Amino acid sequence: MDDGDCGAGNVAKPKRADARRNKESLLDAAGAIFVTSGVEAPVRDIAAKAGVGTATIYRHFPTRADLVIAVYRHQVEACAEAGPALLETEPTPHAALGRWIDLFVDFLVTKHGLAEALRSDHAGFDTLHAYFLDRLVPVCARLLDAAARAGEIRADLDAYELMRGVGNLCIGAAQDPRYDARRLVGLLIAGLRRPD
To answer: Where's DNA bound on this chain (predicted)?
Structure first.
């Protein structure tokens, strides 16, 4: 390989990194708009928040379903990546579990309109629930195991059951301002502690 090839390779990598960051910024913007306006929000609003033209959105995501799926997957990945990071930064595994569950609750409560979209006939939606479980149940299990090994919580807790219980506590929270799902989930997580 000559120097010209090497130089061309170096130029291509930053462009790919920039494109990846731009796509992630677009997904973050779309996710924020979906929270406030639902998944049927105008593409021009998403483009304005992301600081791009609508053509850029359509280039990455030709249909609204493509965009919704990508936002959902992006947010699942962010939640999955947060678990190990919290174990490194929080003072105790139980604290890391509590912070991660807070993120999980935010993820569930802010899925304004997503449930309806997921019930559509679009084939891409079929695998999202399995993807959600495949990515997040092991993260929750790792947090539970760490807290159990530290002697902070009972050792017989199942990650899927806990996530299902948290999910059930979050149902309808976005539509009822008197219902504080985060408070109830906080009580649930506090109740996991082993008695002194």
So the answer is: 42-61
Answer yes or no: CATH 1.10.10.60 is held by domain 1-62.
yes
CATH code of domain 64-196: 1.10.357.10
The Cα–Cα gap between 60 and 184 comes to 39
Distances (CA, A) of 184 to 59, 60, 110, 138, 166: 42, 39, 17, 23, 9
For residue 125 the two structure tokens come to 């939606």
Cα distance between the two ends of the chain: 66
Two structure tokens written together for 147: 């807290």
Cβ partners under 8 Å of residue 122, min gap 6: 65, 69
pLDDT band at 4 (very low <50, low <70, confident <90, very high): very low
Listed by start position, the domains of the chain span: 1-62, 64-196
Would you tell me how many other CB atoms lie within 10 Å of the CB of residue 62? 10
pTM of structure = 0.79
Residue 46 near residue 33, CB atoms below 8 Å: yes
In tens, the pLDDT along 22-31 reads 788 899 999 8
Beta bridge partners, 193, equal 153
